[in-house]
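Morning!

This is the sequence you dropped in the shared folder:
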Amino acid sequence: MDDPTYTPRRTPAAQTVALRGLRYHLRRWGEAAPAGTRPLVLLHGWMDCGASFQFLVDALAEAEGFERQVFAPDWRGFGLTAAPPTDAYWFPDYLADLDALLDALVPDGDVDLLGHSMGGNVVMSYAALRPQRVRRLVNLEGYGLPATAPDDAPARLVQWLDELKTAPVLRDYANCAEVAARLRKNNPLLAADKAAWLATQWSAPTPEGCRRLLADPAHKRVNPVLYRREEAVATWRRIAAPLLFVEGDRGEFETWWGHRYPREDFESRLGVVPCVERERLAPCGHMVHHDQPEALARRLASFLG
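The structure's back. Tokens below.
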């Protein structure tokens, strides 16, 4: 028997916005921001999509004192947002897309921003560069990347050039059940009903009757530009908004990065942000908004006010 599928409690409206030459898809919960509140904008991580936040939005609807308009876009080349005519993706484009999105949605005033993983790294940089646009900031397991050295640059560029010679591909799945199984393999804490629902949002049918992930395969190519720790620290130091940093007790920071990115390095980076609150949820892995949506919603309601 098939696993039951999660039923969303708050149904989003689909919206398309023209941004920087792309048709950007986003989900909107709520017709307008209630008086005296600012919209909450949720930014997903790599190989994910805006629908990923549905469980959190449903939990927020039950959280005491929380009444907001919420937006969750699909980043360029993810979900239902078009892929640009390019064979590589650049981190600054996410910043520019977010800047244009906020100009379109909230031309005046500030918003509350939440980002997960890659999205967490984007919102950290954006809050530093546009402090007047961010009232409160939430980062879910967006740690940045390990420090690099200039001597790493030639090998990285060679790798990028080599990868450009072959078209990247994403594997096909026989059906949504296979996609759901993949999601649960990646995250054993993900409930079966949520995995079944996410599979329908995370993938689309192919002409051959299979399912394929909604992501541009070009995202799999290595970034030719090295991550520069000193530049990231200089940027984070400019963050003016109060920050809530949330991680799971079963997150894979040490397992994923090992000696390449010591925990002490991350703590020193986060230490330059002037106003930080911390939250550690359990049991919880990297996908905080999937594993503990109710606990996260309660913490957000308190932090965002």
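Headline: The radius of gyration is 19 Å.

More detail when I'm at my desk.
O.
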